[in-house]
Specification:
elongated, about 5% strand, two-stranded antiparallel ribbon, 2 helices, about 70 residues
Length: about 70
């Protein structure tokens, strides 16, 4: 190992540092996006129906007979 070129060490390669920088920036951007979305939630859209895009906004009421007798 003494004959190895010291400039060939992994930490002296610029592509390694570029990859690490891009990875770190991506992780920071993801965390910032989550934090900003958590701090500034969207307002619910005003709708006059019980459905949004043909999807019910809540669960249908459970019938008493099916709630009393589990399957």
């Amino acid at each position: 190992m003494r004959d190895a070129d010291p400039s060939a060490a992994w930490f002296r390669q610029p592509i390694v540092w570029l990859g690490a920088l891009i990875l770190a920036a991506t992780i920071v951007a993801c965390i910032a996006t989550v934090v900003l979305a958590w701090l500034h939630p969207d307002e619910p859209l005003p709708t006059g129906t019980t459905e949004v895009m043909k999807v019910p906004r809540g669960h249908p009421p459970v019938a008493a007979s099916s709630a009393d007798h589990p399957r």
